[in-house]
Amino acid sequence: MGLVSQSIAPFVSRFVMMLMLMPSRQNISSGALWEPIVGYSRAVRVGQLVFVAGTTATDSADPYGQTAGALRKIEAALQEASATRQDIVRTRIFVRNIGQWEEIGRAHREFFGENLPAATMVEVSRFIDPEILVEIEADAVIINVGEGL
Fold this sequence. Notes:
By secondary structure, this protein is an alpha+beta fold.
């Protein structure tokens, strides 16, 4: 048995090292009504990557307000993942009426200032709730590696 143990030892030690180096996963919930029904997390952090699910804000009836509100909710989810809006590298904006792109784009631009992410805006035929005009997804890469998880 000693010979078998010695021959397996390097593999076990490499496996243990791989497990130690694997990034942990953090699921972040916002407590939204849809999360338990649909079965998703507001955001998921794995290592230095954070993925924020489609986020909406119906506290405003206009596209500018909904865009600004959704981006604030995204920022709150990122903060729970030890990230900031400066870490966002990509957004995907889904809109019900592409004719409102200027209002939506203005809110997006104002939120990001000079730290502009790659972005896509597309029109969709409808959302799960008829009050929703805008839904935004975001991906972030945490630059300050020493922070967070």
